[in-house]
Amino acid sequence: MIGGLFIYNHKGEVLISRVYRDDIGRNAVDAFRVNVIHARQQVRSPVTNIARTSFFHVKRANIWVAAVTKQNVNASMVFEFLLKVTDCMQSYFGKVSEENIKNNFVLIYELLDEILDFGYPQNTDTGVLKTFITQQGIRTQTKEEQAQITSQVTGQIGWRREGIKYRRNELFLDVLEYVNLLMSPQGQVLSAHVAGKVVMKSYLSGMPECKFGINDKIIMEAKGKPTADESAARTGKTAIVIDDCQFHQCVKLSKFETEHSISFIPPDGEFELMRYRTTKDISLPFRVIPLVREVGRTKMEVKVVVKSNFKPSLLAQKIEIRIPTPLNTSGVQLLCMKGKAKYKASENAIVWKIKRMGGMKESQLSAEIELLQTDTKKKWTRPPISMNFEVPFAPSGFKVRYLKVFEPKLNYSDHDVIKWVRYIGRSGLYETRC
Amino acid sequence: MTDSKYFTTTKKGEIFELKSELNSEKKEKKREAVKKVIASMTVGKDVSALFPDVVNCMQTDNLELKKLVYLYLMNYAKSQPDMAIMAVNTFVKDCEDPNPLIRALAVRTMGCIRVDKITEYLCEPLRKCLKDEDPYVRKTAAVCVAKLHDINASLVEDQGFLDQLKELLSDSNPMVVANAVAALSEINEASSSGVPLVEMNTQTINKLLTALNECTEWGQVFILDSISNYSPKDEREAQSICERITPRLAHANAAVVLSAVKVLMKLMEMMAPDADFVVNLSKKLAPPLVTLLSSEPEVQYVALRNINLIVQKRPDILKNEMKVFFVKYNDPIYVKLEKLDIMIRLANQSNIAQVLSELKEYATEVDVDFVRKAVRAIGRCAIKVEPSAERCVSTLLDLIQTKVNYVVQEAIVVIKDIFRKYPNRYESIISTLCENLDTLDEPEARGSMIWIIGEYAERIDNADELLESFLEGFQDESTQVQLQLLTAIVKLFLKRPADTQELVQQVLTLATQDSDNPDLRDRGFIYWRLLSTDPAAAREVVLADKPLISEETDLLEPSLLDELVCHIASLASVYHKPPSAFVEGRGLGSSRRALPTRSGSQDILESSPSHGERSGVIPTQESLIGDLLTMDLGGPPVASSVPAAPFASSGLDLLSGGLDGLLSDSPSVPPQQAAATAAPSVGLLGDIFGLAPSASASYIAPKQMWLPAARGKGLEITGTFSRRNGQIQMEMTMTNRAMQPMIQFAVQLNKNSFGLVPAAPLHVVSPLAPNQSYEAVLLLNPTGPVQRMEPLTNLQVAIKNNIDVFYFAVVMPMNVFFAEDGQMDKRVFLSTWKDIPAANEVQYTINNVNLSADAVSSKMQQNNLNASVERRKEKNKNLSPKMVCVNLPGADPMRLRTLRIYRRYAGVDGSILRSKIRCHCNLSPWKNRT
Predict the structure, then answer these.
(1) Where does the MHD domain lie (chain A) (predicted)?
(2) In whole angstroms, how large is the CA radius of gyration of chain A?
């Protein structure tokens, strides 16, 4: 199990050091600094073995969080845990920076004591932790309150406390999708997938049981609903094929496996209900067509056409296209039909921004790039053109069919709950090679 | 309020200042001071001098302060054990606190203080906390048992904490169950005896599976990891566990997913590979594995290293998922390299076009390592997918045209491999390669280029000039290049003797006279002599056909792969090394894991019960040695496990062990243990007596692992020796653990002490299909040349098949040498007994022999130990009145006229058998021969 946990700043100074096991000595702190943080080479692996001691690290901004062990631990667990630690710190005091860590070191030690016992991760849910790690010393808690805290930390429903009350029962669902694309210069899709998640904000009283319905093909067929073809014929909307999905720990997985139904008691407030991935029938919102011509040794011509490919009534926002330029660029002349384009020498790229763009439109940018004469033989590697955008629909075709709320003990019914659903499609890694 | 100021106090006299602040009356000031102490502790300053002052702050109702003091205590208690005792009272008091959070805090901290005196006081509070009404306290106490075990294992066992921990497995709270199972797993793994202290059974597994649905994500990981150590009793149980675990694949935590994958991969081994259940399960495994690739890069890395194993073990699972392993421009380098590896593994004829165009893209990237690997990958594709070879070669040529130095060098190295795989197909490109001769500066690339020139010397007009140019700086080249150059020039000479004589003279001189490297010199001399004595033979040797190179490179050894599959998700799977390679210490013997086997394929296991549970593991040197090897006193492999005792002659040590196998107490005693007992003589005769089933035949030792699959490139051999119808037989079980069939088996024995040679060629069913076993019996005749071995019964065996030649040494049991016609007159025996100096005598005592003297005698008779019973009054009345005289005429009289072993039993007395052995051995025949 985890033998110790250290946090360093970018210089390799220790900010936090907590040792859990006897086999980890103080010299481990230095070993990591010398061999990883101060190493001349770029980090080649997130796991390093130094003198039979294994170091796992994640680096966020300028902060290194490292776990140390001498045993054959579950490596995926250690990394998941380190990520949870950073999440946890973030939710307590905002950005994980050197300043914030120093300001909160007592809190961090208290947290580390709670969430890791003898190297075994314990409950890391921030919602629950915040109920009893408060940095306010000991509060005069009644016996009931204490019992409630402990049963919640260890309990079957560790993510929700009892006795929550709202005057207005309301819930919000955000379907957030990231479209990832890799396209060849000829317009062939090399790989495309959508990584989606459903984020729920629940403001519901009591211990409500929720049932969530989506247009997943398997679920719909299991439910004996008309098969995809039939319903498509009727409503014009097909069920989609979800390659894989993962759920927040509140979802009863065994029920999903056997009955294909998503049922859960939600945490209070915001949480990520599910994550999913689709690869089939993705409607790609944009297509980028690059044309690069090298005119002699000192000049290049680039033409980029961007086409939007969705319903004309919808509007895409925050469109940004990034066209990499060679390192020896000396000047760029730009001409674009829409939006603003700028050559950013520090980033070695032309950045073309368009605020809004309707569906089924097309726009074009042409650039003349002047190059300095160089004698290096090394060819420019032409990184891919990348793109960012946001569209108000789910590119995978994902649809929320229903979300039913049952609270048997309190007197509100499914109809009294106000529900909101929103779809957002964003670019993940959306790249076209040129 | 900002706490960062505590990090900046570095002035002198700080400790003194802190001391006064700690003793201050004001609570606020005290708290500030403790914070400062902790901050100094964090940055590595020694603040242990403040120990008493900090401990004084412990008695407080401020929880925050209390936690800080505890933190300090955990760090420094070990260096100040006497002072630490001051804290005990507070701990004990806190364990009674009405607030469960404080009770848990106290027991949690106490377990972390590794001071003996404190540990004593810990037992009572811990016992109470394990039964606490609050689950939060119970779950903390469960982990505390593991802490205590780490400090003092016997205390935990004596105080009955293990039983209490086991009870917690049935706790109503899932988190308590999870922590208890984590603690138990750790205790099991650390157990020094190698035997788990707590066995899992169907019931406990069921409890765990129930808790699995309800506990935290980490708890699920603990439970799954512990279930992965359990072997279900049959296929049905395995299936039902699989069914209950499959839903975990949809969990958001990658650790839960990977641990579930581990259990499933392991249990699938128990089922027929083509069963519907397995096929369905395989389908379910792919999507979650792919999803792991959209997590954070560090988690991706772990996932990819594991996928690499899974793809090798079950290629079908991800065969259609090639695209997800395409490298993204922004992936960290470690993710890129791993993805590349998996891409090559998944490459096949249907997707090769895509793979190649990707690889070509990667070969133009920036990172040198990555580019090199991409180029190498193109070569591997050519070798793996024959129809694509043409395209691969042209892609490589394109890359060579880029003239990027390291790309060119890497390309030449892989082109050499392509030439080996497809001889005489792509020579047309040699001229292009030659253009780049002068840019090559890495030994491997230079060596490869030289090999190509030598191999195709007859078609390269200026081959002699090219090689000569390399020869100029011969001394400065690395050995690898020098060797290649030597061979290449000799090849050239054999192909074009007319105009290259001078060149070959030159290189031979350089190699034999001017070099200090023995490899190079020897190779030079061999070539020289070959060329000068028999050029035709030289042609045959140097220009011989080369064996084909295998299609799959970089595959893990099947047995290592199996072991690693049992460690999916763990560090071992990230390093691709067994845990013993990077973990120190305790109880490693027990942590070796092996895949379960299907009931149908257990024939191997039955014949060798002692290693059944570690069939997938590379055995240690000791297990090769077998239970007979206590004799191998001087031999390096067991030197550590056998006490060195003075022996009068080699014949003696031969005996002391030679009989041990046949005599050791029970046939199932693991060899290491038998060998490790301080007095190897104790186990005498036990086996004969213990081995009831084979009472009518002579004793045959259980089969030993002779050649583990890891060393035999997939060929595994277990075997033993027996004596049937007056002839010595070598009985072997040969198992093919590799992926391709094996053919052309042959065997050869090195010269040995008894002149044993095979009486007939080795017959093995051919081909030996993957995972098939064959029982081979080889008759041995003692008619070959004799050479003295150390120890005498050592036998060196070479087994050959189409893959390679494998060498291993085995030690033969002594009893197979005893001839049937060794009867001897009693008087002759007695006089011979006296002839041998008493110094050659060894005495043994065996306990628990429940046989009469006659029975002993007849047992030994069956093993050609001709025993005669003699009754005689003993002067010493303490000895038993019965006396067994045994004479053991030497092994196969034909060969070893002069080795005589004599043994006299001092008596069989109830359950104790005492024996004396004298041994006489004339070494003259060996002296003559060596």
Answers:
(1) 168-433
(2) 26
Contact B345, B308 (CB under 8 A): yes
Token pair in block for residue B43 = 């940055």
Q: Say if CB B905 and CB B914 are below 8 A apart.
A: yes
Indicate if A191 and A249 belong to the same structural domain: yes
Residue A47, in any domain of the structure: yes
Residue A420 lies in a domain: yes
Domain that holds residue B836: 826-902
Q: Give the pLDDT confidence of A264-302 residue by residue, as tens digits.
A: 999 888 889 999 999 888 999 999 999 988 888 888 999
Q: How far is Cα B594 from Cα B604, in angstroms, rounded to an integer? A: 15
Judge residue B475's burial from the number of C-beta atoms within 10 Å of its C-beta, 0-12 exposed, 13-18 middle, 19 or more buried: exposed
- Judge whether A356 lies within some domain: yes
Say whether B365 sits in a helix, a strand or coil: coil
**Tokens matching residue B17:** 């200042």
Contacts of A36 in chain B (CB under 8 A): none
Question: Do residue A273 and residue A405 come from a single domain?
Answer: yes
Kindly give, in sequence order, each residue whose CB lies less than 8 Å from that of residue A249, ignoring residues fewer than 6 positions away: A159, B216, B217, B251, B252, B253
Sheet holding B704-707, edge to edge: B704-707, B715-724, B727-736, B773-781, B757-758
**Statement: residue B113 has pLDDT above 70:** yes
User: In this complex, is the C-beta atom of A278 within 8 Å of any C-beta atom belonging to chain B?
Assistant: no
Q: Is residue A137 part of a domain?
A: no
Q: Which of B510, B533, B556 is the last residue of a domain?
A: B533
Please name the residue of chain B whose CA is at the shortest distance from the CA of residue A25. B75
A42 near B CB under 8 A:
yes
Residues 6+ apart with CB under 8 A from B168: B130, B138, B142, B176, B177, B179, B180
Task: Note down the domain range covering A218.
Answer: 170-222+238-282+395-432
The CA distances from residue B899 to B627, B650, B669, in Å, are 23, 10, 30
Question: B539 near B490, Cβ under 8 Å?
Answer: no
Q: What is the pLDDT of residues A210-241, one digit of tens each?
A: 999 998 887 777 666 554 444 444 444 578 88
- Among chain B residues, the shortest Cα distance to A257 is held by B247
Under DSSP, the state recorded for A240 is B
Contact status of A167 with chain B (Cβ, < 8 Å): no
C-alpha B315/C-alpha B308 separation (Å) is 10
Strand-strand pairing, A418-432 and B727-736: unpaired
Q: Is there a domain that residue B502 lies in?
A: yes
Q: Which residues 174-193 of B have a C-beta within 8 angstroms of A?
A: 174-176, 179, 182, 186
* B750 and B844 fall within a common domain: no
Contacts of A58 in chain B (CB under 8 A): 296, 298
Of the candidates B592, B615, B785, B765, the residue with the CA atom closest to the CA atom of residue B704: B615
Looking at the fold, whether B802 and B868 belong to one and the same domain comes out as no
**Nearest Cα residue in chain A from B34:** A106
Beta strands A170-183 and A418-432, pairing class: parallel
Report the range of poorest mean pLDDT among A42-51, A169-178, A213-222, B887-896: B887-896
pLDDT band at B914 (very low <50, low <70, confident <90, very high): low
pTM above 0.95, yes or no: no
Q: Are strands B704-707 and B715-724 parallel, antiparallel or unpaired?
A: antiparallel
Q: What residues does B732 pair with on adjacent strands?
A: B719, B776
Closest of B840, B811, B399, B903 to residue B621, by C-alpha: B811
* A47/B3 touch (CB, cutoff 8 Å), yes or no: no
CA–CA gap between residue A59 and residue A43 (Å, rounded): 10
For residue B708, tell me if it sits in a domain.
yes
Give B40-90 pLDDT, tens digit per residue: 888 888 888 888 888 888 877 778 888 888 889 888 888 888 888 888 888
We report the CATH number of the domain holding residue A331 as: 2.60.40.1170
